[in-house]
Amino acid sequence: MTSIIITFYERLSHLKYCLDALALCSKDFDEVVITDDGSKEATIGDLKKMIACYTFPITFVTQPKQGFRKAAALNNGIRHSRGDYLIFLDCDFLVLPDTIQAHLNKAKPGRFVAGACKYLNEEQSRTILKSNWSTDLIEKYYRDLPDKEIIVQHRRFIKRSILIKLHLASPRKQSLGGHLSIYKKDIEYINGYDENFIGWGGEDEDLGIRLAAAGIYCISAIRYARVLHIWHPSELRSSINGPWKQGTMRDYFHQNKIPFVCENGLKKLML
Q1: In the chain, how many domains are there?
Q2: Model confidence over 82-96: pLDDT tens digits?
Q3: Cβ count within 10 A of residue 184
């Protein structure tokens, strides 16, 4: 059973198109879990009305607004998921019709699958959000955007993954800021995302480091799991607690060895 976990905060129009894109490939997954990071009550009310229109199963979960807590929201989504295989998306992602299957084709116990995005600019995003929705539309936008960066990322990722397995490179420089998928038992093994990350960024990089430390290495689907990223203002990155590189978690990444099981994750542990 495959669960799609989508993180959400306030952007209903983005979420609608994310779900519309998933509707075009709903045969490839079993449920969607939308995990909210403390949106307003009015937004949540509109969201519940909106998701009732879709034919595939959707579970909505939320948490109190206590800062930018994406890591906690992701763990909340994992807890409420029923699938044994999990695919993580943001609400501003538009998947192509073959994207979910591309993740599943690469799925392997003891490994996780990473993807990347092509980025729409502001004008392109406004156009696509106002257009009549179709497979041809998102295929056209993806095809028209250059492939060079995707190819470079794919090759770089494969090279670094091999070096990490041979202990010749550090997983600390392997960014996981796109979309990823993993067997639930494997992410549970490292106790999920570290909820000490509050504020924008850091939780994905930490996850990759701890997965590698646990012997769970990455498979690249960057060239095959195709996703468009909808443009949006970036004010959220600096609005709450600042980015992690300027916050209290900065020194965490300077440790000689980071434990692969985090204390403040899916379960609250005292290590």
Answers
A1: 1
A2: 999 999 999 999 999
A3: 17
Give residue for tokens 């009015």: 42
Residue 263 lies in a domain: no
Residue 268 resides in a domain: no
Question: Which of 130, 165, 260, 136 shows the shortest CA–CA distance to 208?
Answer: 260
> Tell me, what amino acid is at 103?
H
Beta strands in the chain (DSSP E): 2-8, 31-36, 58-62, 85-90, 93-95, 111-114, 118-119, 180-183, 217-220, 227-229
Alpha helices in 107-147, H assignment, sequence order: 122-130, 135-144
pLDDT, tens digit (0-9, with 9 covering 90-100), for 208-251: 889 988 999 888 898 899 999 998 776 544 444 455 455 555 56
Asked if residue 267 is part of any domain, the answer here is no
Task: Pick left, alpha or beta for residue 128 (phi over 0 → left; psi -120 to 50 → alpha; otherwise beta).
Answer: alpha
SS3 23: helix
User: What is the rounded average pLDDT of the residues 111-129?
Assistant: 89
- Estimate to the nearest angstrom the gap between the alpha carbon of 174 and the chain centroid: 15
Please check the confidence at residue 56 and state whether its pLDDT lies above 50.
yes
| CATH code at position 178 | 3.90.550.10
Instruction: Give the pLDDT score at 107.
Output: 97
Q: Cα separation of 167 and 191, whole Å?
A: 23
**Cross-strand bridge partners of residue 59:** 33
3-state secondary structure of 35: strand
User: Residue 141 and residue 152: Cα distance in Å, rounded?
Assistant: 20
Name 61's bridge partners: 35
CB environment 203-236: b (16+ within 10 A), e (fewer): bbbbbbbbbbebebbbbbbbbbbbbbbbbeeeee
Establish if 266 belongs to a structural domain: no
Range of the domain at 151: 2-254
| Token representation of residue 89 | 């998306």
Residues linked to residue 85 through DSSP beta bridges, in sequence order: 2, 183
